[in-house]
Design brief:
- The structure is a single chain.
- This protein has 123 residues and is of the alpha+beta class.
- 19% of the residues lie in helices and 29% in strands.
- It is built from three helices and five strands, in the order E-H-E-E-E-H-H-E.
- The protein has helices spanning 11-15, 76-81, 89-100, and strands at 3-6, 21-24, 35-39, 57-70, 107-115.
- It has a five-stranded mixed sheet with strand order 1-3-4-5-2.
């Protein structure tokens, strides 16, 4: 069964099949060939009233490359692959630091995938 991975900040880019790369703190043991289910939200779906938000699956993907690299090494092309066309690497780095509370030199796992439904790059 594929592992679940949240893409809440880039949901639109996943739905439009523009996102093909993500960076994560952790996920260091992931390997090419593994499959992932991209979801709107995985953790934190339990509401205050005790109900649980449904798990929304957006896409099934196969990992094609995994590497470990510092956040500062992201380039403008990968920012687009991350789902942020028109943004540059400095914007991405600052945004990632703010959301993930890490540093420019934090070593992250870069995960690249292909969509299993063959719709990559289509809107």
């Amino acid at each position: 069964m594929p592992r679940l991975i949240s893409v809440s900040l880039t949901e639109d880019a996943v739905v439009e099949r523009r996102k093909t790369v993500t960076r994560r703190v952790g996920w260091a043991h992931l390997r090419p060939g593994e499959r992932l289910t991209l979801c709107r939200k995985v953790q934190g779906r339990k509401r205050r009233d005790g109900t649980v938000e449904p798990l929304v699956r957006l896409a099934e993907v196969e990992v094609v490359a995994v590497s470990r690299e510092p956040l500062w090494s992201v380039d403008d092309l990968d920012v687009e692959r991350e789902g942020f066309p028109g943004r540059d690497a400095e914007w991405f780095i600052a945004s990632f630091i703010e959301h993930m509370r890490c540093q420019r030199d934090t070593v992250l796992t870069r995960i690249e995938w292909r969509y299993l439904d063959g719709t990559e790059g289509r809107t």
